[in-house]
Amino acid sequence: MQYTHHQFQHPIGIDSPRAASHPHPIPSPSYHRDRDALCGNALDGIICFKHSLYLIPCLLIAIHGSVDLCKFSRRPVIHPQSSNATVIKLCQLTYFSKLCLIIAVSVIQLAYSCFLLIRFGWWDPGQCISSLLLCVSLLYALPLHHLSHQRSQRSCTSLLFFYLFLLIISAIELRDHLPRSLLIVNPLPHQTSFLILRSLLLAAIFALECLGPFKYHDDHHHHTFSLGNQKNNINPNKNAYRPLSQDQSSLPRLESPLVYANVFSRLTFGWITPLMKLGQHLAEHDLWRLPRADQADALTNRIHQTWSRQRSRTHSDPSLIRAIVHAYGGPYLLAVLFKCIQDILQFAQPLLLSRLLTFADSYSHGNQPEPLSHGYTIAALMFCCGLLQTLFQHQYAHRAFVTGIRVRSGLIGLIYQKSLVLSNQEKSGRSTGDIVNLMSTDVSRIQGSCSDGLILVSGIFQITLAFISLYTMLGWPMLGGVVVVLLSIPFNMGLSRLYSKLQKVQMENKDSRTRLMNEILNNIRSIKLYTWENAFTKKLSAIRNDRELCLLRRMGYLFSAIFSLWSFIPFLVAFVAFSIFSLISDTPLSPALIFPAISLFQLLESPLGVLPIAINEWVEAYVSANRIGAFLASKELQQDAVIRSSYSTEEHVPPVEVLDAHFTWSSGTDSTLSGISLSVSNGKLLAIVGRVGSGKSSLLSGILGEMLKLSGTVQLRGNVAYTAQTPWLLSATVKENILFGVEYDEELYETVIEACALVDDLAMLEDGDKTQVGENGVALSGGQKARVSLARAIYARADVYLLDDPLSSVDAHVARHLFDKVIGPNGLLRGKARIMCTNAVPFCQQVDELIMLRDGRIVERGTFQSVLAN
């Protein structure tokens, strides 16, 4: 129908004076035509339904955006880390461009809203309200853009989805208006132009937001610091123990793109593309730095906090599983959600297949054929289901695997920290092999349950979906399959319970074998010397062959029975369901019914097949979690045995102070040390002498907090370095044992080597200080190990030195050299507080104070001359 200019000024239209005075104004034809162009017609389904779609992005920015706004407001401002001025200018240009574009879209949207109100009033309130809400949402996005740019390293997720939904809705509106603009004479050109302009501006904002705040890529500046000249003495006012930081040790590596990747890059794994482009065998330097939250110390601290909260509860026993869930459960719960969505999409495919077969059947037997658009829609839905299913499956697998790695790193760090503070009573009942077994076998099983154990939950969910889908196809006959599954569950649970008991016994056998193997390796020299190889081989074989292998065989038979049972169940379920359907139903088994049902039965086979594996993994993880939990809940060293404070240079504040202290090795026994009181100031050397077994080494252990303090006070100020009577060396080079993680200072290193009389020894070694010392220093002699241990303590540059008989393992002339160059009043440690246990009387003449112990008590104290006189 054609409208002329005069018809737009119809005397009874809304613009005429007569219409204004009429109680119910009659809209003009131009009004109806414009409203149809604005809202659509009956061919589009629901009039103005597209306007209600604007509620989705508006609610998204209101809810999710508010959460992001609160999160960003609590973060500090992140300053640009790039030194490239061009990058910084480009970043600023991007930021201001986004703000200008948002303001432009807001102004255009506000102007268009005012136009709608003036032109049409409230004839279509949905259009007006949605337009005003969109304008408010765009203005609300401005502070979110500002804070996201200043305080976030990646693009804001709520803003990305906000603009994405707006682009989709704008495309839907353009789809409605562009055909009308071609068919209707003199349409509303302003609305089509507005939609095109708004879509272009939104696309530009979306593209700029996807770029992200790339200003935060750093240039990896190397931070170095001077340790000063330490040739002749170690400055007592400086703590030169400077362990290498996490960042320094990985400076050559680049920052992980995952830190800056937006939500779309993380969903599609686009952030890993630069690594894939290398196209070569990867080396360590090709890998990126781990994000800070995924580094070992951060993961250990997280599980340590949750475990401490579990232990602080008095009404229940601590649960390691609950601690793991609280520490790392967030991403894992998201993985569960992704897996459930993937399962739903997986079971939607047979339903779509059934609908596609019904569509194809409509073109046969003279039936009324369905429109081809239905077939295209079904095919498109099947494609989208497959695409989304793959997307969610990989997101689930990635998060589950990463959670497993986090649990492994955190638990290993937690077990290691616990092993350092075990009480002496607990240490006597546990060997190193037991702790290693916890770190390797038990932790690996818990990690495996995180990566693959989710199949248990997913399997139950898939079985439920399969039976619901089968019910929609077969009806009540599918209950026969349900009965088969229910009857098999108790039998399988009994087998799983038996498998759990065998698994617990197997772990005990592994502990016994590991403990025996550790003893064999530690005493391999004695075994070889006395030709005890056959005896220990028989002993080891008795555990391995007679106990472990026999139990493994029984467990293998049991697992095969469980797996065979669950593999046979899907066939039995399908057989029973189809048999009952054929007997009681009048409906024939058509291809549109059989093929989707068979697809569902095939999908049912997967969860039923992997369910016993998942149950097995969860059983093993549960046993391992209880073992680790029992270890972590064991008794620790006395936390308040030693009062530790910062180092003080004041002379009247001694670094070591013990007042009337009583110590014992285990609770319930008599005091090993009684009435101990001593004080060591800066630059003083205290010697502790006494017969063998008088308590000299125990006194040093008590000062370190290794013993149970019954009463008294022990206070240490500053860092402490300790050398044991039996030196402990790392299985590394001589140099690495001396540095022990401290930054290398060539001048100080050479000074320490010379003071510890290691120059000649290193010259005799083929590789010098790069010689591997072997396990516990097996490649070195006793005197060399003692001097390397002493050199490590000196290089640490501590404030307090506790030396347990450091001169007993060396020759007399070497002992004199060590005392003069290191320990004595003119040595490297002359400015430090030193406590030395020794029976070398010649060196006691040069100490500042001498203490004599007998039966755990101080019987004499004073200078060498005063003690000798008594």
TrEMBL record:
> Which topology term describes how it sits in the membrane?
Multi-pass membrane protein
Molecular function in Gene Ontology: ABC-type transporter activity; ATP binding; ATP hydrolysis activity
Q: Which residues cross the membrane?
A: 99-123, 129-147, 159-175, 195-214, 454-473, 479-500, 557-584
Name one cellular component (GO) term: fungal-type vacuole membrane
Q: Where's it mainly located?
A: membrane
Which PANTHER family does the protein's record reference?
A: ATP-BINDING CASSETTE SUB-FAMILY C (PTHR24223), MULTIDRUG-RESISTANCE LIKE PROTEIN 1, ISOFORM I (PTHR24223:SF443)
Q: Where, per UniProt, does this protein localize?
A: Vacuole membrane
**Key words, A-Z:** ATP-binding, Membrane, Nucleotide-binding, Repeat, Transmembrane, Transmembrane helix, Transport
ABC transporter domain location: 656-870
Q: Give the PROSITE patterns listed for this entry.
A: ABC_TM1F, ABC_TRANSPORTER_1, ABC_TRANSPORTER_2
| Native species | Puccinia coronata f. sp. avenae
Domain (ABC transmembrane type-1) ranges = 333-620
Q: What is the lineage of its organism?
A: Eukaryota, Fungi, Dikarya, Basidiomycota, Pucciniomycotina
Query: Please, which domain of life does this record's source organism belong to?
Result: Eukaryota
Q: Where is this region: Disordered?
A: 1-26
Q: What is this protein called?
A: ABC transmembrane type-1 domain-containing protein
